[in-house]
Amino acid sequence: MGFAALAPVDRFLTRYRISVVVTTILLVVLASPLLVFLRFDFNPLHLRNPATPSVATFLELRKDPQTGANAIEIMAPTLDAATSIEQKLSSLPQVSRTATLNSLVPADQEQKLTLIQQAADTIGAALDPPTVKPPPTDQENVAALSSTAERLLKIAGDKQGPGADAARKLSELLTQLAGSDRGLRWQFEAAVVEPLRISLGHLRSALEPQPVTTQTIPADLARLWVTANGRARVQVLPRVIRDFVTAVLAVSRDATGPAVLLYEAGNTVVGAFIEAGIFALATIAILLWMALRRMVDVLLTLVPLLVAAVVTLELCVAIDLPLNFANIIALPLLLGVGVAFKIYYIMAWRSGKTALVQSTLTRAVIFSALATATAFGSLWLSSDPGTSSMGKLMALALTCTMAAAVLFQPALMGPPRSPMRRAQPALQFQL
Fold first, then answer.
1. Which of 178, 236, 313, 400 is the most exposed place for a label (fewest CB within 10 A)?
2. Mean pLDDT of the chain
3. Cα(373)–Cα(403) distance, rounded to whole angstroms?
4. Is the dihedral of CA 335, 336, 337, 340 positive or negative?
5. Rg (CA), the chain
6. Quick one: fold of 4-47+260-430?
């Protein structure tokens, strides 16, 4: 019922037991610097399907820093304090742009006002002529439309190409408009002439600028940057997201905004899982002590569990699988499933069993792991990125914990002690 083909593995682990244990621990320790690069992806958008229209639209908008999707906001007690903070932040390489109320005041106003005045002197007479002719009559409009259509046809001639085709098409439309009733021409005039009047009015206003100061900024706009009690807002936009929040928080601990909220939420989740992991390990150790009554046996159960956990996280860095709000749930499951596998080997070893790799116990552990992997690892096939990442990490964690139980723990335990016959029935009852 076991795996007779794995008998050479048993003999190898028995013969080179110390070398296997030392090499495994050494490799795990040497690879431990990878844990420094273990990332927690605190962006919840990465857990959503990017093909979804809403997510795709937001991701497209987010490419433009001006949208403020990743902005950080800081409230300073005064506008002068906000300006001081802005100057410090603008020098950071992670920051692309900073803004306060003062950012709405244009620079080099004297030079720009002079140039605008020169433009006004040049085209002012055309915008405000001393005399204005009366509007044309409908007959004059028809004559102008017909003459323009004939001129376009003459210009197009027999020529080919997009320009000639467009000229002939426009000539046809103008001819139709000239031959239509007066009401349609009035509608056309309203659609074309009225927007032109509005544009010319805007141009006249633009040629009569006034100096801009923080006091002349419209009140509705100023309220977005300075409150009634004088507190001033600083907006900070990122150049690159990574390290952006930490760099800004190093300058001002009062920073807030979407980027800071997501960053702090990620830190909270990671801290909570670290705390939960410590409590879980402590509880597991207490339960193992109650069941095994030997500190050495407790360590022989926990060490392979810790090795499997560390190797799982190291492989996450190697294959670029960051932790996120979804897949981090796999880590507590790794502790529960992992300790279950390893306590089976401890109990068999305590009862005097040998050749554990080829035994029926290993067969049971492998098939149990495969059943669990089928349940959780199938999530890997999900179209939802968050669910898929959870299945991927669970499959990786199960592979590592099974390898630690089947290959590393027998070498770590070594030859069995003499069977503990008097304690065995009680232990079996507890299990």
1. 178
2. 85
3. 14
4. positive
5. 38
6. Multidrug efflux transporter AcrB transmembrane fold (1.20.1640)
